[in-house]
Write a structure and sequence with these properties.
The protein is built from 4 helices and 8 strands. With 167 residues, it is of the alpha+beta class. It has a 5-stranded antiparallel β-sheet with strand order 1-2-3-4-5, with helices on both faces. A 3-stranded antiparallel β-sheet has the order 6-8-7. Strand 1 and strand 2 form a beta hairpin. Helix 1 crosses helix 2. The radius of gyration is 15 Å and the shape is globular. The relative contact order is 0.16. The mean pLDDT is 96.
Length: 167
């Protein structure tokens, strides 16, 4: 098994800061997840999830990071690397933003920073899995150079598997 460098857990772009999770992110994280339309998790449940994310980061050296806008200093979502449906050697890039933040290029900007951070770890390839219905997310991945690899059918419907080689 190849040894990889630890991913940078603090990334900055022109408009965004991606940083480690903090307990104070719990309420906003709850609000973000409630936009999925499947109910609102409790703040206590989310605090537990944040603790699990931090433990996974410690264990794996990769991270899913909160995104905040640089000027407004507000939480608008998350972006980072996860094992998800893939592996630690070829992790998935994942992101989700508040609907109010859609259409402004934030997902592309944050994901591009994560791609650079992933490449700096020595990884050679990333995956992403997206519901076929999620056209905006598929556009983001296309802009970032991801290409369709295959499809699978899961309990929530058809999923596109995309991949991107890293320099």
């Amino acid at each position: 098994m190849t040894t990889y460098e630890t991913m940078s857990f603090h990334l900055e772009t022109e408009r965004l800061i991606l940083r480690p999770w903090a307990e104070y992110d719990a309420a906003e994280f709850c609000a973000l997840l409630s936009e999925r339309g499947k109910g609102t998790p409790t703040v206590e449940h989310i605090r537990s999830s944040i603790a699990e994310l931090l433990a996974a980061t410690e264990r794996t050296g990769i991270a899913l990071l909160p995104i905040q806008r640089r000027d407004e200093e507000d939480f608008i979502g998350y972006c980072g690397l996860i094992i998800g449906r893939s592996t630690l050697e070829e992790p998935e890039i994942a992101y989700e933003l508040f609907q109010r933040a859609h259409g402004r290029g934030y997902a592309t900007e944050a994901a591009a920073a994560v791609l650079d951070a992933a490449a700096a770890t020595g990884r050679r390839r990333l995956w992403s899995t997206v519901g076929v219905w999620n056209t905006p997310s598929l556009r983001v991945l296309e802009k970032l150079g991801f290409e369709q690899d295959h499809f699978s059918t899961e309990e929530n419907g058809e999923v596109v598997w995309l991949t991107r080689s890293l320099p």
